[in-house]
Amino acid sequence: MERSVYHVMMDTPSNPALMDQTKPPARERILRTAHTLFYREGIRSTGVDRIIAEAGVTKVTFYRHFPSKNDLILAFLDYRHRIWISWFQDALQRYGNNLLAIEPVLQEWFFNPVFRGCAFINALGEMGTMPEIVHRVNQHKTEMRKVIEGLLPDNCDREDLAGAVAMAIDGAVVRAEWGEPIEAIHGFNLLIEGMRCLTP
Amino acid sequence: MERSVYHVMMDTPSNPALMDQTKPPARERILRTAHTLFYREGIRSTGVDRIIAEAGVTKVTFYRHFPSKNDLILAFLDYRHRIWISWFQDALQRYGNNLLAIEPVLQEWFFNPVFRGCAFINALGEMGTMPEIVHRVNQHKTEMRKVIEGLLPDNCDREDLAGAVAMAIDGAVVRAEWGEPIEAIHGFNLLIEGMRCLTP
DNA sequence: TCCGAAGTAGACAGATCGGTCTACCTTAAA
DNA sequence: TTTAAGGTAGACCGATCTGTCTACTTCGGA
């Protein structure tokens, strides 16, 4: 996984003085800024003016890349999907790439200072009436389940079990989001323990 | 549970011609309208003007009861909490008041035409930076867990298990919200099955 | 009988929203 | 050398946002 993606996903804001002097192209800056603000403060409560100001571009440049805020929202979800899945797969690898790896991965996520839950679940709550949004959530969760399938032994119904495990993760994520990350991980372990006693 | 609460929680819109002629007081009308719109379309995307118009009150009346939109949002969450918990307890009773009752209760919820996920999880995604909101979510989920505790046998760690079951419910709720209610219930059953094999 | 609470109708204000527009500059490839 | 893509700065638009205001009405209880 390239450094930039890992940075966006997990790092705390770095010292500007130490930052790479060559700033990325406008589109990338807009997307990164939108990602930070949309994820942290919500989509509807973040105006395009603020993104434009913080990305250091002009309105013309912004609207050249994203004809409407709606386009930016969808691009943000696609961007988030890419960096989250990359991070998730990498983190699972680092912890052994099996069912038991999920716990430390969640730990790493929940206790990251920028954690604010699952961007897709949040977007669903905020604009769950927009079909393009719902579709993106579906895609994201489908791919997440596929990654989880890869952690399961092949002598069981992996698709079913992966779906259940993914639901346990989502339950844990929202619980961590309202301020109970420890309890969330504990509850997740209980649910997984149950899963494991169903797995032959 | 009084009829009005059950109506708000579960019924499809009734025929206006058959409705009770004596309309409820202004505050109640505002609260019901806000509940419908906030839940269905999101909090930030619903302007007070629309609530005022659909509740059939004037701005003065509105702002006399709720000095700011923020006050209305918090009142909405308290209102939602009351009607949801009432419905949840009642529904569990109707299906036997044990762990196995949760499945048909979720079924009833997910397939209701007005279902749009958990209002608290949605609010958290939308305005999870506001401490009063986070606090309400915490309160709501704590009470939900307490109700679930009542379904568990007393020869186990009910608090822990109830927390895990509640997380499985939340995972199922968000999955149902993005359009997979059947898979959500199936996954929930798998998770609960695991729980039950941990329960002595 | 008087008074205050709760209601009506609707104009208005200031801020912010998403989005458009003109005018000019830089750079790299055809 | 020309040209097109991508960039800058900032004025401007109409719509919508939350919230305030004046002026009048209705009604139940002290």
Topology record:
Two copies of one chain form a homodimer.
Chain A: H1 3-10, H2 26-41, H3 48-55, H4 59-65, H5 69-94, H6 102-110, H7 119-127, H8 131-149, H9 158-177, H10 181-198
Helix pairs in contact in A: 1-5, 2-3, 2-5, 5-8, 6-10, 7-8, 8-9, 9-10
The structure holds a DNA duplex (30 and 30 nucleotides).
Keywords (chains A, B): DNA-binding, Transcription, Transcription regulation
Protein name (chains A, B): TetR/AcrR family transcriptional regulator
Domain HTH tetR-type (chains A, B): 24-84
Major sheet characteristics of chain A: none
Reading off the top of the CATH hierarchy, the class of chain A is best stated as Mainly Alpha
CATH architecture of chain A: Orthogonal Bundle
The assembly state of the depicted protein chains is homodimer
How many individual β-strands of chain A?
A: 0
Shape of chain A: elongated
> Given the structure, what is the number of helices of chain A?
10
Q: What is the helix fraction of residues of chain A, given as a range?
A: over 70%
N-to-C SSE string of chain A, H for helix and E for strand: HHHHHHHHHH
Mean pLDDT of chain A: 89
The fraction of residues assigned to DSSP E strands of chain A is: under 5%
Distance between the termini of chain A: 34 Å
Main interface by residue count: A-B, 50 and 50 residues
Low-confidence stretches of chain A: 11-21
The CATH superfamily name of chain A is Tetracycline Repressor, domain 2
The CATH topology of chain A comes to Tetracycline Repressor, domain 2
